[in-house]
Description:
The chain is mainly alpha-helical. Helices cover 67% and strands 7% of the residues. The protein has helices spanning 2-35, 55-88, 98-107, 115-130, 149-164, 170-186, 195-210, 215-222, 224-235, 240-250, 255-269, 293-311, 313-326, and strands at residues 133-134, 144-145, 189-191, 237-239, 273-279, 285-291. A two-stranded antiparallel ribbon has the order 1-2. The protein has a two-stranded antiparallel ribbon with strand order 3-4.
Amino acid sequence: MKxxxxxxxxxxxxxxxxxxxxxxxFALDHAxxxxxxxxxxxxxxxxxAPLSAPKEESLGATVWYYIKGIAILGFFAFAVVYIAITxxxxxxxxxxxxxxxxxxxxxxxxxxSSVIDNEAAQIDVGQAFNTWQIVSKPGEEEFRSPLxxxxxxxxxxxxxxxxRSLPTDPxxxxxxxxxxxxxxxxxxxxxxxxMKLIYCAxxxxxxAYLTSKGFGQFFxxxxxxxxxxxLYYFASYSPEFLNTKRERWFRGFNIHNVLIGxxxxxxxxxxxTDTYKTTYSDGSTKKTEEWNVMFFIMTALTxxxxxxxxxxxxxxxxxxxxxNYLIYV
Length: 329
């Protein structure tokens, strides 16, 4: 059932992304078309009345506009509520003490200590530890850590079973608490997204606001930009066990940081002008400076990358939400 729900959510995300891309393409097409319209006193005036579309087409476009808006808003609302509930969850494991175990044994009429119960608890602790993956390098002391949600869930079940045995061996209780602390630490979340991508989106927000006729028009057409920035920020809070796995796979690289950093690095290293030195036959020299064509190319490329990444932050926000909150590989 959970897998089916996740598949449905992925389909919804893809649909919202396609709707958003279509809106973006539609807006860019209209912006470029509007930019090509020029009038001058010599142009013949055909009619001053605005052209109107057929009522059927206007009604259909309005209905489709609201359907897309409801779909995207629905996904935003679901993501915000899901993220808020997840971030407010308290750690599942609560440390136990020897006094608590003895008190529970007395309340249940059991003897103060039992070798059989201690052995059963030790077996459960060992099973929890053995479900984890080895993260230490060959030749080093073996160190394990949970790297998937299924391993964490199984480990919690094993520790719960160990606690139900009510062990009274201090070493076993310490082992339970140590593993439980690791589990709590592995589900803690931290921001692992790209601040460079957020800066690009903020730059696009400023650009969209400057090209709009006031805040009202900006909010009407580009409300999803600031909303996507906020969603991206919180959707990029990933649990530590995923961070550990991704750091082993990708060595901590973030594709957005690498892409933006590379483009900005190339832009910063490109000189504005080229200096040429001419030596004449009499031995005299002359230095001249000319505009560097590559500087303008890199400027255009940098702006294109910033605008494209900034506009598509809603897609990256959705992807991060799915991969950090819904799917634990």
